[in-house]
Amino acid sequence: MMRKSLTLRVILALAASAVLITTAMAEPAQRVVTLGGSVTEIAVALGAQDRLVARDSTSTYPAEITALPDVGYIRALSPEGVLSVSPDLILAEADAGPPAAVDVLNAAGVPFLRMPGDPTPAGVVAKITAVAAALDLPTEGAALAANVQVALTEAEARAAAVTDKKRVLFVLSLQGGRVMAGGEGSSAEGIIALAGGVNAATGFHGYKQMTDESVLAAAPDLILMMDREGDLAIGNPDVMAHPTLSQTPAAQSGNILRMDGMLLLGFGPRTPEAAKALYDALYPKAG
After folding, report:
1. How many other CB atoms are there within 10 angstroms of residue 243's CB atom?
2. By the 8 A CB rule, do 170 and 201 touch?
3. Which DSSP letter does residue 265 get?
4. Model confidence over 129-164: pLDDT tens digits?
5. Which of 123, 234, 116 is nearest to 181 (CA)?
6. For residue 138, what are the contacts with CB-CB under 8 A and spacing of at least 6?
7. What is the model's pTM?
8. Which helix (H) or strand (E) segment is 236 a member of?
9. Helix/strand/coil percent split, the chain, to 5
10. Could you give the C-alpha distances from 136 to 26, 89, 263, in angstroms and in order?
11. Cα Rg of the chain (Å, integer)
12. CB neighbours (10 Å) of residue 3?
């Protein structure tokens, strides 16, 4: 938890950064910290990679971006880490936090801008446009948004053409033996819909644990997960050993899919790619 009183290091950083507020937005920022994988991807796609001085731990694409200093996880930020690179602009995804850390960053005098976070095709375009505006790259932003919009429109048309939609259960974790899934309004539901599927997890918003009864009632045709390593990794044996998941149609037929988490849920420029990969897994005969 954030300490109530600022450390000397943070106080000094705030003082050093405060002078930037009068000039930071007068000309394009040259020392930018991006917080959130999709925001970082957009900045790079716009050609602003040379202006990035740090990124958060979810920003791993493209691979060369990982050479930048890592200021921590987007939902567990350290103001000290962010301010240590002397940014003149901070671009963050909508869920950056915790609030106390964001308050410190706002008080530092460095422009802190949250980007749109709607997990829909329109939200992707809005995010691209917002990042481009913040970086003063309107021409590049318009071009990228137009290209991505074409691919998103193709994905929407492909999804709309599906007449017998498959049911997908996105499993975020199995910690404690409980199924934590992506419900209504989640980015998981957004990508499932864009791939022509139906979210099997209903009756709750965001990411929450499901009861055994609700998992069975969901009756997914496919179980979708992030491709993870370490303690958070969920292998097929874990699914088949789970007393409830193992009884679902998806597990019984071996329809279990893992995808890169940022590709799948980031809702950035690669979202059309994610939608096509999931569509192909759901409807292999459709090509």
Report:
1. 9
2. yes
3. H
4. 999 999 999 999 999 999 999 999 999 999 999 999
5. 234
6. 132
7. 0.89
8. helix 236-241
9. 50, 15, 35
10. 10, 12, 26
11. 20
12. 8
